[in-house]
Amino acid sequence: MPDDDAGRGDLWLLLQNVSLAPSDPDKKMRHVIELWAPWLPEDETKERIEFLKLLTTYERTPTARDLGERLRLTNAERQRLELWPFKPIDATDEEIAMQCRARRNERRRAKRGRTRAEYLAACLSSTKPWGG
Fold first, then answer.
1. How confident is the model at residue 2 (pLDDT cuts 50, 70, 90)?
2. Residue 104, class by beta-carbon neighbours within 10 Å (0-12 exposed, 13-18 middle, 19+ buried)?
3. Inter-axis angle of helices 25-36 and 5-18, nearest 10
4. Least confident among 34-38, 72-76, 96-100, 108-112
5. What is the spatial distance between Cα 85 and Cα 73, in angstroms, rounded to a whole number?
C-alpha cells in the first residue's frame, strides 16, 4: 500500500477486518502492517492496534454501504466480482433487492430443471390413461 492518505485508509479497513480474528488478533494485525505497510512507524503501529482493541466489535465492523462507498464499488464491479455483501454506490437498496430475487429465482429455476410451460406441454400432449 502506498504511504499516503488512501493507503492509510485502506490499511485501516484491512486492520478492522483482521482485528475481528478469534485468535491472537494483535499478532495478525502486526503481521498485516509488516506485510502491507512496512513504512508505518512502530509507534503508529502500536497506536492503531491499541485503538482497535478499545473499539467494540460493532464499531470495528463496517456496514455494507460503508464498504461500498469507501471502495467506490460500482454495481457492475460488484456483479463481476460477486461481492454480494458489499453495497454499490450506484444502486439503491430496492434495486439490489430486485437483483438478489432475480438471482435466487434463476437458481431455483435451474434446480427444477424444466419450466412450467415445458411441463404443461408434456402433460397435455400425452394421452390420458383413464380413458378418452
1. confident
2. exposed
3. 150
4. 108-112
5. 12
